[in-house]
Amino acid sequence: MDEKLIQRLESAVSRLEALSFGGGASVGHSETAAAALDPSIIAFDDLRSQFVGRVRSAAEKIGGQVLDVTKFVEEAFEAQRELLIKIKETQKPSMSVLAEFLKPLNDVIVKATKMTEGRRSDFFNHLKAAVDSLTALAWIAYTGKDCGMSMPIAHVEESWQMAEFYNNKVLVEFRNKDPNHVEWAKALKELYLPGLRDYVKSHYPLGPVWSATGKVAVSAPLKAPAPSRPLPPPPPPASLFSSESPQASSSLPTKGMTAVFDEINSGKPVTVGLRKVTDDMKTKNRTDRTGVISAGEKEGRVSSPSFSKAGPPKLELQMGRKWVVENQIGRKNLVIDDCDAKQSVYIFGCKDSVLQIQGKVNNITVDKCAKMGVVFMDVVAACEVVNCNGVEVQCQGSAPTISVDNTTGCQLYLSKDSLETSITTAKSSEINVLVPGAGPDSDWGEHALPQQFAHVYKNGQFVTTPVSHSGG
């Protein structure tokens, strides 16, 4: 407690020195020093000292890439502090100028994101948790209910939910290996929940407060044409900040049966384009028929996964009732944030992707997916995992039923509100369920569901019990 008090006193002294030195300088410098003494800035410095300092201390014990990505977290919070000071001296800019104004923070996030690209390292989960968490700092871009993003407090909470998916992996992987990694993961979570969330709730619940009489922010002149990147870069929610816009269905080439009927209705003769079959092409006259499939042909048929020849990726609401997420490959920033309890979500043919479902839906089905992560809040009926391989499903709210069918490798993360969930499995293996500990600092408990059973005929009926294996 004394050490924290000393840090706060030292921070206050440094601010007073900056203000005193600014007395003989320009008025603008004095205003900046005065803004640094604002209660909201002092509270933000306390946030950095207490929570960011804990993450840094834990990272120094680990070193390597974990320390490198933690330095980016420190740099991002420092950039946000500078922006908060500038906001108190600047009038509210237009949306086009806002992106330029927030560029220092965006640049840090871009640099941090590059650490997760390319070949995966042994600390990929650490990197993703830290990088994805930086999206929470984008609360500073909130300009009103029509700006396309959640209110600041909700945005911080939602952004952390995506990062928590990877943060939990760190906790599970190192809980019995290295307490320094566990300490780092817990400190990272506390930085945002309750740290940043409570700070925003206390000082900026409705977004940044711009100066009414300050200077006008202007965008820098363009030196050369270059594509602009909005703040923040994905992930997560691509729906809020991604510059990609969904391609209209009318612009896509006609496929499937629609193309067939279009061709029939075109008025052309139905035999146009057909090739004439000569006698030597007929099966009964072919001399190369052996009835044996070559090894190369067989391998070519088996090795291709079911989703390799699938159609274009989809993430759309059909008929106002069903969200369809199909053929998404390598997309870690998929988000469904505009849903209700009458809608269902169907996920099909996705690979190496992460989908976050924000809000309550009626039903969730994950079908024929591999290395897929699904994070959802509440489900009214059930969450179903069918014909999948290596998927992870995290329930952050409640779910009456979770069923796993014909699936190999499935990690289920349950929240405290979903511990009474009924879990059914059939024709599945390697099913693990992780539940939170009793206390806020307790480790997650991992439970492997049985996949082998013994059936004994007793008293006129079969009695089935799970088979347990003990290491000899």
What is the helix content?
25-40%
Query: How are helices and strands ordered from N to C?
Result: HHHHHHHHHHHHEEEEEEEEEEEEEE
Q: Describe the main β-sheet briefly.
A: 12 strands, mixed
Record field, number of beta strands: 14
Structure characterization notes:
With 472 residues, this protein is α/β, with parallel strands linked by helices. It is built from twelve helices and 14 strands. The strands form two sheets. Strands 1, 2, 3, 4, 5, 6, 7, 8, 9, 10, 11 and 12 form a twelve-stranded mixed β-sheet that branches. Strand 13 (453-458) and strand 14 (461-466) form a beta hairpin. The model is unreliable at 18-31, 222-258 and 289-308 (pLDDT under 50).
Write the SSE topology.
Elements (H helix, E strand, L loop, with lengths): L1 H20 L5 H10 L2 H24 L1 H24 L7 H7 L1 H11 L10 H10 L18 H23 L4 H25 L34 H4 L14 H9 L30 H9 L10 E5 L3 E5 L7 E3 L7 E5 L2 E17 L2 E17 L2 E7 L5 E5 L2 E6 L8 E5 L2 E7 L9 E4 L4 E6 L2 E6 L6
Parallel strand pairs: 2-4, 3-5, 4-5, 5-6, 6-7, 6-8, 7-9, 8-10, 9-11
Antiparallel strand pairs: 1-2, 11-12, 13-14
Helix pairs in contact: 1-2, 1-3, 3-4, 3-9, 4-6, 4-7, 7-8, 8-9
GO molecular function, one term: adenylate cyclase binding
Pfam family, one: CAP_N-CM
Family: Belongs to the CAP family.
